[in-house]
Amino acid sequence: MTGQENSDILGSIGKLVDAEKQLRARISDGTADEASAREELAALEVQLDQCWDLLRQRRARSEFGEDPGTARVRPAAEVEGYES
After folding, report:
1. pLDDT digits (tens, 9 = 90+) for 16-28
2. Ramachandran area for residue 30 (φ above 0: left; ψ -120 to 50: alpha; else beta)
3. How far apart are CA 56 and CA 51, in angstroms?
4. SS3 annotation, 20-84
5. Least buried of 1, 22, 23, 26, by fewest C-beta within 10 Å?
6. What is the pTM of this model?
7. Residue 75 main-chain phi, psi, to 5 deg
């Protein structure tokens, strides 16, 4: 089931990226209220970071013989606090 769950996470990432692109296009062409669109964009970026973090956790657990199913979505404050 690990592969399917990872695929589901990647699917969610794809949908979030599409939503982000559409929102950026609406901001760019002026069809979106900029203030609310920027808030929505920030929320999408946090969700994307959380999805990528979850996928990394799952892959690392799998690589080291642990159960990837024990990986959990971390709070936004924790994920956003990481440094690259």
Report:
1. 999 999 999 999 9
2. left
3. 9
4. HHHHHHHHHHCCCCHHHHHHHHHHHHHHHHHHHHHHHHHHHHHHCCCCHHHCCCCCHHHHHCCCC
5. 1
6. 0.88
7. -60, 150
